[in-house]
Write a structure and sequence with these properties.
The complex is a heterodimer of chains A (319) and B (375). Chain A contains 12 helices and 4 strands. Chain A has 319 residues and is an all-alpha fold. Chain A has one domain: ABC transporter involved in vitamin B12 uptake, BtuC, CATH 1.10.3470. In chain A, the strands form 2 sheets. Chain A has a two-stranded antiparallel ribbon with strand order 1-4. Chain A has a two-stranded antiparallel sheet with strand order 2-3. In chain A, helix 1 packs across helix 9, helix 2 crosses helix 9 and helix 5 crosses helix 6. Chain A is globular and about 60 Å long. Chain B has 375 residues and is mainly α. Chain B contains 15 helices and 4 strands. In chain B, strands 1-2 form a two-stranded antiparallel sheet. A two-stranded antiparallel ribbon of chain B has the order 3-4. In chain B, strand 3 and strand 4 form a beta hairpin. The radius of gyration of chain B is 22 Å and the shape is globular. The chains are: A mainly alpha (319), B mainly alpha (375). At the A-B interface, helix 4, helix 9, helix 11 and helix 12 of A face helix 7, helix 12, helix 14 and helix 15 of B.
Chain lengths: 319, 375
């Protein structure tokens, strides 16, 4: 039981922060299928920064680890800048731009990782090795019977994610900025009439989504393999998309969806282990979140409301 | 007095209004990405001309200085055709759906599904070669169309976003197929599914022709036929007209009396069947086994290839050929110039990046042209 909660949370929370990124971008009206590529590029940038920093500064590894999270956000934001340019400035089809960004991200990280490893670190490899992320336990809370597991032996990045998520939720729902972002997604002309700059708001929303996806991707890199490698592209970005569609583009329900996905995954793995089935049964477990999403969409797609202006290029002349 | 600068005029010539505007824009995008690739190669300190030349040599377009025994330029070219065949089917699949306003991102999933079903049903049987190959092709069409219908029906009946459905299906198919491969059909040495028998394979490998050993893609003619059939259906038939009408404005088409649901479902049947053909020609043709848990990147590349070909049938064919020349030629280039193999994927994705903003180039050129005319 404890393993389910510990492992489930360490999977759910990075997924959640990526999904929030998606909500920001799509909430502002820009379809973001690029999350997969953004999280991978963020993880690449973070991994690269860690490798470079740990070589040049003999500091406390914990500081470097947290610094690499910040660099991952910068990396994700940089690639998102390209998506924003394509969708907003160049008026490309947003879905297609997302797919192209994903492909570019895979190709670019594979190329750069090989090239940098060969020329800077002098070894043929497409990976960056990382440290194990620090874990911690909260003394009193961890004594609570079942729920205590949530406070036991967790990665400290989970705290960072919760803090960032709370801040992003506050920003989106309680401030004028958030109001602008949501207006952009539902009725950009209303925002323009009120004196807002639709393109600027969308631009920053997309970049924010890249930064959040980068953060989530770096956390995945730490928790799943403690390396950056091309294996980061395992479809977590698409899973995050499933999560926020499931959560109807709202942060609260999306959190529940992520928790559900994470726990279904860890519970499935534990079950496979307990019944001592071959590990290939884990594959069937992995389909659960996707099947659940598909079935629920089947019944609730009429009540599932995407932002009204989602995917439309903003055209001032159109009323 | 003419105040327009030369670059502006060249740009308008490339992307402006007039005959073959789409084609000219695509060529302009290809030129830009080759330019970007040139820059990249220069930064790495390599000779770009030499690099592009060896890509063409590796793909069998130009002759290499020397060949290994029983190989020649022709064998390289046949191998290029062999790898291009699934790409043509996949790009057509995406293009047909795009014409109807549907974004088929499920090509990879459909490829895995149809490839797996054909492998299981006929790949390990001891049918006679001709019968086995025909059955493989038909099962590819059938199982591909099955998934296509599912997506089309869910979109039409339940108003579900086809992109989301496709993403979910991709992963469900990938994991379920991986489960069956790992429990039943795994080859313990290669960690892939057991290779299919030669009887069922759609490509003849190391087939002696004269004094050469070459790969003969038996379904390549079928791919060519598919290109022309799709072109005919889109341009000359009533169904093709309805399909394009729905794609450009489904409300207006409904008002005009077109059965939108039927058009969507039938489009997805065709698109699915083509993706299924891509699957069998990939997994039982250019490859012989399925790697568990991996969605073929070809299915995603096909989206961009179709886009580069302006989602027309003929355009998709040439775009597939171009992208696969890069793909096939790179191994030779990277071994000759000591460049990383990953650079091909990088140049390809830059190419796709440019072709995604082709519409921006066209509107920009149109606007410049208008400005000039007003002056």
């Amino acid at each position: 039981m404890d393993t389910i909660i510990v492992e489930g949370l360490s999977f759910s929370l990075p997924l959640f922060i990526i999904a929030i990124g998606g909500i920001y971008s799509e909430g502002s009206g820009v379809t973001n299928l690029a999350l997969e590529g953004l999280l991978g590029f963020g993880a690449f940038f973070g991994g690269l920064s860690y490798a470079l920093l740990s070589r040049n500064f003999a500091g406390d590894p914990a500081v470097l680890i947290y610094a690499s999270l910040a660099f991952a956000m910068i990396g994700g934001g940089t690639l998102a800048l390209l998506h924003a340019l394509m969708c907003i400035k160049f008026k490309a089809n947003q879905v297609i731009s997302g797919v192209v960004i994903n492909m570019l991200s895979v190709a670019l990280t594979a190329f750069l990782a090989n090239q940098i490893n060969a020329s800077v670190f002098g070894q043929p490899s497409n990976k960056f090795l990382l440290e194990v992320f620090p874990r911690s336990t909260i003394p009193l809370l961890s004594q609570i019977p079942v729920l205590g597991a949530a406070f036991t032996n967790f990665y400290t990045f989970e705290l960072i994610i919760i803090a960032v998520a709370l801040f992003m939720a506050y920003l989106l729902y309680k401030t004028p900025t958030g109001m602008h972002i949501r207006a952009c997604g539902d009725n950009p002309h209303a925002l323009a009439a009120a004196g807002g700059n639709v393109q600027k708001v969308r631009f920053w929303a997309v970049i924010t989504s890249g930064a959040l996806a980068g953060l989530g991707g770096m956390c995945f890199a730490y928790s799943i393999s403690t390396t950056f490698s091309p294996n980061i592209y395992m479809g977590f970005g698409y899973l995050a998309i499933a999560a926020y569609i499931f959560g109807s583009w709202k942060i609260g329900p999306t959190f529940l969806a992520c928790i559900l996905f994470g726990f279904a995954r860890s519970a499935g793995y534990v079950l496979v282990q307990k019944l001592s089935l071959p590990s290939s049964y884990g594959d069937l477990v992995l389909t659960l979140p996707y099947i659940v999403t598909l079935v629920l969409l089947l019944f609730f797609s009429s009540s599932n409301k995407p932002p009204r202006a989602l995917g439309e290029v903003y055209d001032q002349a159109k009323r | 007095m003419n105040t327009t600068s030369l670059p502006k005029r060249v740009f308008i010539l490339c992307c402006g209004k007039g005959k073959h505007q789409l084609l000219r824009t695509s060529l302009f995008c290809i030129f830009l990405s080759l330019l970007a690739g040139t820059l990249l190669l220069l930064i790495l300190g390599k000779n770009p001309l030499e690099a592009y030349k060896s890509i063409l040599q590796g793909a069998g377009i130009l002759a290499k200085p020397r060949y290994a025994g029983r190989k020649s330029q022709l064998t390289d070219f046949m191998s290029l055709l062999n790898y291009t065949t699934p790409m043509i089917f996949a790009a057509l699949s995406v293009a047909v759906a795009l014409k109807c306003g549907i974004f088929n991102i499920c090509v990879s999933g459909i490829m895995v599904f149809s490839g797996f079903m054909a492998t299981v049903l006929f790949g390990y049987s001891s049918l006679n070669p001709l019968l086995a190959k025909i059955l493989v092709v038909f099962s590819g069409i059938l199982f591909g169309a099955l998934i296509g219908v599912l997506i089309g029906y869910l979109k039409h009946r339940f108003n579900m976003n086809e992109v989301v459905v496709a993403i979910m299906l991709n992963y469900i198919i990938s994991y379920v197929v991986s489960f069956f491969i790992q429990t039943r059909y795994i080859d313990p040495i290669t960690r892939q599914s057991v290779a299919v028998s030669q009887n069922a394979r759609l490509t003849l490998f190391n087939h002696p022709v004269g004094n050469l050993n070459m790969e003969i893609p038996l379904v390549f003619p079928l791919a060519l036929i598919a290109v022309f059939v799709i072109k005919f259906v889109l341009d000359k038939t009533r169904f093709g007209f309805e399909l394009k009408a729905v794609g450009s404005n489904n409300k207006a088409s409904k008002y005009a009396g077109i059965n939108v649901g039927r058009a969507v479902v039938f489009t997805m049947i065709i698109s699915g069947a083509l993706a299924g053909l891509a699957g069998v020609s990939y997994y039982l043709g250019s490859n012989a086994s399925i790697q568990p848990r991996v969605l073929p990147s070809l299915g995603f590349d096909a989206i961009a290839v179709a886009l580069l070909g302006n989602s027309s049938a003929i355009g998709s064919f040439f775009a597939s050929l171009l992208v696969m020349i890069f793909d096939c030629g790179t191994t030779y280039m990277s071994s000759r110039l000591q460049v990383l193999r990953e650079i091909a994927a990088l140049i390809t994705s830059i190419l796709l990046l440019f072709s995604a903003i082709g519409i921006f180039f066209r509107t920009l050129a149109d606007r410049m042209q208008r400005e000039i005319e007003e002056v």
